[in-house]
Amino acid sequence: MYLCIMVKNEVLALVDKGEMLPLMEEFYTIQGEGFHKGTAAYFIRVGGCDVGCHWCDVKESWNAATHPPTTIDAIVNNAAKYSNTIVVTGGEPLTWNMAPLTEALKAKNLQTHIETSGAYTLTGIWDWICLSPKKNKLPQGIIYDKADELKMIIYNKNDFKFAEEQAAKVNKDCILYLQPEWSVKDKMTPLIVDFVMKNPQWKVSLQTHKYLNIP
Ligand code: SF4
Question: Is 4Fe-4S found in the keyword set (predicted)?
Fold first, then answer.
């Protein structure tokens, strides 16, 4: 019993340092969204998120305790077998220190991409940052300067205003995307199309993997 508690505490300490991560799932597929859509990529989905979007399509990711703490070596060795492009997603990956994972991925010359709400401090070495701000917990400072793409999810008409507010905060090279939330795509896509034609600094992003029926 004492040994079990000791091992559990050691594992939690490693997770705290980002040397182990609660791994929800990992899979090789096609990036469906944003700038890299159509690119083959290995996805690492890390558990843990307290942002609480009511329309979230991966609510099972929220409770980190339900996902097994996994060593960085195991995650990276799996990833390296499949692809040069690695997408770290969640959950909210910045819940955890991403430095150990990304250092290990870069040591194998892999491209590191992150999909994040930016709700927590940016850690890790990233080749591509997809920032997708959420109203419940706004991004933390520096990530606005570092983001390569801004992906705003449109669930209702008020989200256009939020998207413009967030676009005013990102760096000038950041690519701007509006993406309909899947459950309301039939209603919101025509509004997005109309908005983008009137505001061509924005582009439309669709969840093409869902149309293709792939993960
Ligand atoms: S930030 Fe992402 S994972 Fe977290 S609740 Fe929102 S959509 Fe879900």
Answer: yes
Report the DSSP pairing between strands 175-180 and 202-204.
parallel
Residue 207 in contact with ligand 1 by CB distance below 6 A:
no
Domains of the chain: 22-211 (3.20.20.70)
Give the C-alpha separation, 203 to 197, whole Å: 9
Mean pLDDT score, 86-113:
98
Ligand 1 atom closest to 90 (CA): 3
Residues 46-52 have a mean pLDDT of 98
Residue 58 beta carbon below 6 angstroms from any ligand 1 atom: yes
* Residue 57 CA, ligand 1 centroid: distance in Å: 8
Task: Report yes or no on whether pTM surpasses 0.85.
Answer: yes
Q: Is 93 in the pocket of ligand 1 (CB under 6 A)?
A: no
User: What spacing in Å lies between the alpha carbon of 56 and ligand 1's midpoint?
Assistant: 5
Sheet holding 69-71, edge to edge: 69-71, 20-30, 40-46, 85-89, 111-116, 128-131, 149-154, 175-180, 202-204
The structure tokens listed for 136 are 């419940």
**Phi, psi dihedrals of residue 124, rounded to the nearest 5°:** 100, 170
- With 0-12 / 13-18 / 19 or more C-beta atoms within 10 angstroms meaning exposed / middle / buried, residue 115 is buried
